[in-house]
Amino acid sequence: MKLYTAEQTKKIDNLAIKEKGSSGFSLMQKAAEFSLDVLIREFNYVEEVIVFCSKGKNSGDGFLVAAYAKEFGLKSTVVMCNPEKDLQGVQRKAFEDAKDSKVKFISFRAFKNSQLSKNTVIVDSLIGIGLKGEPRKKIESAISEINKLSIKYPVLSLDIPSGICSNSGSSKGLSVEADVTATFIARKRGLYTSTGRRNSGDIFCSDLDVSKGIFNKVKSDCFEISFEKYLPTLFSRQDNAHKGNFGHVCVVGGDHGYGGAGILASKAAMNVGSGLTSLITRPEHVTASLTSCPEVMVNGVNSGQDSEELLKNCNVIAIGPGLGQSAWSEQLLQRVYWEAEERDVPVIMDADALNLLTKLKLSSKLPKNLVITPHPGEAARLLKTDVADIEVDRFKSTLRLQEKFNATVVLKGAGSIIGYKKNGNMNYGVCSAGNPGMAKGGMGDTLTGIIAGLIAQGFKLNEASEIGVDLHSKAADLASMEVGEIGLTPTDVIDAMRELIKYD
Questions:
Q1: What three-state secondary structure class fits 150?
Q2: Which of 10, 36, 115, 410 has its CA 20 to 30 A from that of 257?
Q3: In the structure, what pLDDT confidence band is assigned to residue 134 with cuts at 50, 70 and 90?
Q4: Range of the domain at 305
Q5: 211 and 269 within one domain
Q6: What would the pLDDT profile of 320-369 be if each residue is shown by its tens digit?
Q7: Within 10 Å of residue 255's Cβ, how many Cβ atoms?
Q8: In this structure, what DSSP letter does residue 323 have?
């Protein structure tokens, strides 16, 4: 599923208007019809609709939603956050249609004293995708009011929650916290990551009957990832297959006190289908690994030199889970670098491996085939900035990481982003699955193991990263249905993943 920037969406919109030879009002009508359908379907108890409007194109959609709601038999009110004289073009026409439909109009100041019925739905049509910078003070007041109302009444946002940047998903000021978002023409990438992911609620999209030929004229470098499309090739095996067909993962990690991280990563790699899985860790963790997962070939080492022969047999190395930052940790990372340089073996670097990368200034010796999986804090350290700078534009941050380390990048968080170069062009995959229960130690280690297991089986670095992130997140969603989000564990995710990858 392609995702688009505001500029790309506007281009599609303009091409569609040109093709139809209209002013764009017909598209606005379709958007309003679709939005009302979503509203009635999702909130079938609705009796009253309160639509917040300003002066932009997005408010034109809102005026028509109010008009169509009134015609449908609902009580319909528009809260005007800008004077009527500011309305122009198709927005003005939509406003007049709403007046003709006997929609009630009220100023924002007057609305604050209004009493709402029990079965009211709030509709946000204040800004849309044209946001530049922070919302104006008057609009921020309206957003604040909507969010107060959202405690008691459901909120439907039109196109995108007001205050959310359509391109980045970030919010520089206040932004509407919607339960449902009805978006039009194209799926905006800002709906799927950062604050946009949190504030959009359930997303429904209509292309408004724009032709496929028009979409083909506007290229997008961003898409929603899906592991399901790989199921036939990923998890179907020949009858005469043997373990050597599915690669050998070597997980390196588990310093003093952090043994569980390496165990989780190796267990995840094995359960996603790696033919052979090894773990290089501290000697004290060997017994725990064998008890937890005897299928993993675990080796305890006291130095980087002890790992030399063990690393020679694998076709992908995952380093970082529980690695620590001791002299032992540094030696192992150096040894992995040497092995990668000698054999071009793919390497996944996570957690403390990324922290050591910053500390030891090893970027000049990076493996040629590299995946890095930082969370925002690790990304900030890698780019020598702060978390706020990373989060303000996660797409830009992913690009900076890719260019600095020449790697496939998995920037974790709400709406994880996979970034990589293909034929010289940057591509972004965005994950729409996952839940807050994943904010727990060991989840990143599990993801590292999953990606490693997929690379071992022959998938390209970007493919393995896309499949791994989506599979990991959807497994977490599946597991949370049984155990809840609060009690969700990485082991639960691994077990649920096994259910998802069953394929007949």
A1: coil
A2: 410
A3: low
A4: 227-236+243-500
A5: no
A6: 999 999 999 999 999 999 999 999 999 999 999 999 988 877 666 799 99
A7: 21
A8: -
